[in-house]
Design brief:
The complex is a heterodimer of chains A (328) and B (290).
Chain A: E1 5-14, E2 17-27, E3 32-36, H1 43-50, E4 58-63, E5 78-81, H2 93-103, H3 109-117, H4 133-145, E6 151-155, H5 163-178, E7 182-187, H6 190-194, E8 199-204, E9 207-213, H7 214-219, E10 224-229, H8 233-241, E11 247-250, E12 256-259, H9 263-273, E13 279-284, H10 287-295
Parallel strand pairs in A: 3-7, 3-8, 5-6, 6-7
Antiparallel strand pairs in A: 1-2, 1-4, 8-9, 10-12, 10-13, 11-12
Helix pairs in contact in A: 2-3, 3-4, 8-9
Chain B: H1 19-31, H2 35-63, H3 76-80, H4 87-91, H5 94-118, H6 120-127, H7 131-164, H8 178-203, H9 206-223, H10 230-236, H11 240-247, H12 263-287
Helix pairs in contact in B: 1-7, 2-5, 2-7, 5-6, 5-7, 5-8, 5-9, 7-8, 7-12, 8-9, 8-11, 8-12, 11-12
Classes of the chains: A alpha/beta (328), B mainly alpha (290).
Chain lengths: 328, 290
């Protein structure tokens, strides 16, 4: 089946800054697509270009084969929540949704229906200005659902939601996709997408870093990390020195992590060199790690790393300083 | 791939696209803000109140014998001229109607700047990608509401002031110049509203848009007064405040300036400002990113 959203060399420049750089991707129906990237990677600009709010400098993006701006009315084609704060605080939730429904010729009963769906029925008559961020997110989701569209876009929809709300939103995305809709959800946190997305579209500095099913992306983690505890780290370093590709790092909690070697091989080498081990375990790299490594070079607003051994630093004469970055 | 064959639809299928849907949407937006009825209600009362108060105090003074207007004695040219009381002018006291212009312009500006400043514009234009129709619907609602508002204020002000001045030359609608003044005053609010809409589209910031349109409508005219240079005065005639002043003048009284505009020119100026306001708003909203 063809994609519902097709971007072709989509580019947007703001003066000297290229926010989105020749982005090409496809979002398929019946799937939740996680749109991931660090802050400033161009996610929001891309979503605005899909909706025709921002004009591309070059390239095209279509929804159902047509540029979205060519449609006279949008709600039945694409539902979108870009920023929950983008509402007029002086109106009630009901008035806000009614204005949107009227403009698209939708029956007013849809307003009460979507308010019920997102759990805001009791607050329908209250002014939006008094809403918490979580309530505004729910209102934005309600607005996106109004026209019962086959395509849904959500920009950072989990911000401000309580754990119950997060669980509800994830369930909602899954069920929307199960109904055959295309659901594109942006986030800068891999953890938010891990249990929700079928496909991933990872961007960094406006470029596609990865576009593949979540399972394929997870396999990129490939190499496992071995966690070791030993009373004699220098001896362990000696034991690993001859092993090609092996790297030893202190994990900060008194333990050590070894990358580039299997847990079995670490055990064997320790045994051969007579190094005592108190703990030895293998750990699969998390998606978050894969994501961080992939986007590390593309971080727009990164803090410079302090000098010291980075990932993959070869076994050095001990003591090895430096910290393991994430061993969750 | 586990995509089901089709989406389960909750909403009824799309009907025809109608402009009246957008008018209803904009109507809902305008009246769902509490400030709208308050501003129009209070504004209408203040404008009418100032004019009625002026009529009442004028009637009071004229009851005690016709006095020359203040300052007339200092001007030897006017001293000889017979004193003519301007009853029509009492219904259209300048500061009161400038207040009405401010109110109408701010209402028009807020219709667009309110959307841009809050970011609501993105929600609006994602729901209705046809931006030109959205602006047209806004202009329609703003114009209609301000036309009714302007007509109510004008008729109340005219009726009340002229009734109070019935013994001192108060006019009725059938008198020369009266109907013209009433129609021009009723149109003043929607013209300013459309100018405000253009300011809202260009400036996109609530306070900035209001200041811009007030500056253009009320402060700029002050730069083009005086009879010294003909071109200065004629440039001034291109502004809506000036056009309105021309149209509410009692044609029976002498014209108090050297280079007056004709009524036809003044009507054309009001129409041009309305049309230009709408055109600028549509063009700015269409061509700029949201």
């Amino acid at each position: 089946m063809d994609g519902v959203i097709e971007a072709n060399a989509l580019t947007r420049r703001y003066g000297a800054v290229t926010a989105v750089d020749r982005l090409s991707f496809t979002v398929r129906p019946g799937r939740v697509t996680g749109f991931l990237g660090p802050n400033g990677a161009g996610k929001s600009t891309t979503l605005r270009m899909i909706l025709g709010l921002t004009a591309p400098t070059s390239g095209t993006v279509t929804v159902d084969g047509r540029p979205f701006r060519d449609r006279p009315r949008g709600l039945r084609h694409v539902g979108a929540l870009l920023d929950a704060h983008e509402v007029h605080g002086g109106r009630s939730a009901r008035a806000h949704l009614s204005a949107l429904a009227h403009g698209n010729g939708l029956p007013v009963r849809r307003v009460e229906e979507v308010l019920g769906t997102v759990g805001l029925a009791a607050a329908a008559g209250r002014r939006i200005g008094g809403f918490s961020l979580g309530m505004k997110q729910r209102l934005g989701i309600a607005a996106a659902l109004l026209g019962d569209p086959p395509v849904l876009l959500f920009d950072e929809p989990l911000n401000g939601l309580d754990p119950e709300g997060v669980r509800w939103v994830r369930g909602l995305f899954r069920s929307l996709a199960a109904e055959g809709r295309a659901v594109l959800v942006s986030s800068h946190l891999m953890g938010e997408m891990e249990h929700t997305a079928d496909d991933l579209l990872v961007v960094g500095r406006g470029r596609v870093v990865a576009a593949e099913p979540l399972s394929v992306f997870a396999a990129r983690g490939g190499g496992t990390t071995v966690v070791v505890r030993t009373p004699d780290p220098p001896a362990l370093a000696d034991a690993l020195r001859a092993e090609p590709g092996a790297a030893l790092r202190e994990s900060g909690d008194g333990g050590w992590t070894v990358t580039g070697v299997s847990a079995e091989r670490v055990g064997d080498l320790a045994h051969a060199h007579g190094v005592r081990l108190h703990a030895l375990s293998a750990r699969t790299a998390s998606l978050e790690q894969v994501f961080l490594e992939l986007t590390a070079e593309q971080v727009e607003f990164g803090v410079p790393q302090p000098p010291g051994p980075g990932p993959g630093h070869p076994v050095a004469p001990l003591p090895v300083s430096g910290r393991e970055e994430s061993t969750r | 791939m586990n995509a089901p064959a089709s989406v389960r639809h909750l909403a009824p299928p799309a009907g025809p696209t109608r402009f009246r849907h957008l008018i209803r949407s904009e109507w809902t937006k305008l009246w769902s803000l509490r400030s709208t009825p308050y501003a129009l209600g209070v504004g209408g009362l203040v404008v009418t109140g100032i004019c009625v108060n002026a009529a009442r105090s004028n009637a009071d003074r004229l009851d005690h014998g016709p006095l020359p207007p203040p300052g007339a004695g200092a001007d030897p040219a006017r001293e000889a001229a017979p004193f003519a009381f301007d009853a029509l002018g009492t219904a259209f006291v300048d500061p009161a109607w400038q207040l009405l212009m401010v109110l109408a312009a701010c209402l028009g500006a807020a219709a667009l700047s309110g959307e841009y400043a809050t970011g609501l514009a993105r929600t609006t234009f994602a729901a209705v990608p046809d931006r030109r129709s959205v602006v047209a619907a806004k202009a329609f609602v703003v114009t209609a509401v301000l036309l009714v508002f302007g007509a109510c204020v004008t008729l109340t002000s005219f009726g009340a002031t002229q009734a109070l001045l019935r013994d001192h030359g108060g006019l009725s609608l059938s008198d020369p110049g009266a109907a013209r003044a009433v129609v021009a005053s009723a149109l003043l609010a929607p013209v300013c509203g459309l100018a405000g809409l253009a300011a809202g589209a260009l400036v996109r910031h609530a306070a900035g848009a209001a200041v811009t349109v007030i500056g253009v409508l009320l402060l700029v005219p002050a730069l083009f007064q005086g009879d010294t240079y003909r071109w200065v005065r004629e440039t001034g005639h291109l502004l809506p405040l000036d056009a309105w002043v021309t149209l509410v003048r009692d044609p029976a009284l002498p014209v108090p300036e050297k280079y007056p505009a004709t009524a036809t020119e003044a009507w054309a100026v009001l129409c041009a400002w309305a049309a230009a306001g709408l055109a600028v708003a549509v063009a700015a909203v269409r061509h700029r990113d949201v």
